[in-house]
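Quick one: co-fold with FE2/S2 (inorganic) cluster.
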Amino acid sequence: MMQAEPSDEIEISTIVNDAPVTRRVKARQHLADFLRDELGLTGTHLGCEHGVCGACTVRVDGEVVRSCLTLAVQIDGRIVQTIEGLSDSGAIAELQVAFLARNAAQCGFCTAGMLLTAHELISQRAAATRAEIRDFLSGNFCRCTGYQAIVDAVDEVLRRRAGT
Ligand code: FES
Ligand code: FES
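Sure, here it is.
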């Protein structure tokens, strides 16, 4: 359990990508820094650090969250999945193949967050129009692709799953 410490550090216990983790963290450290600096999970990127760009997207207890707006202490007792865990498990393999085939990743800065949000979409819905895909991904910014190839890739996965 979370214990307040006079040193401004708090012990947390969590599961990250199926591995139990216990660490002392600064009360104001955000989750993205915790993942990157403490655990070496640098696939989670930091762009705006203000909840705008989506580069820092991860899953906490199965829900997509912005890790720059989530404090590390908030994951005490919770389950975190990052791009590394979802990639290693094969959960996003279809999307990764489609992104590669469609050239939907250029510099790659947005790609981890984009894949996590796209995975959320295909987990929730069996079908979506291109406009709906675009709307669902609208909280993830990409400065390279113009979004067309990303929408193509997600559309391809949805269509393949639907057999259309
Ligand atoms: S870095 Fe978190 S939303 Fe931009
Ligand atoms: S591929 Fe460069 S920001 Fe999206």
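If it helps, The CA atoms of residues 45 and 101 lie 23 Å apart.
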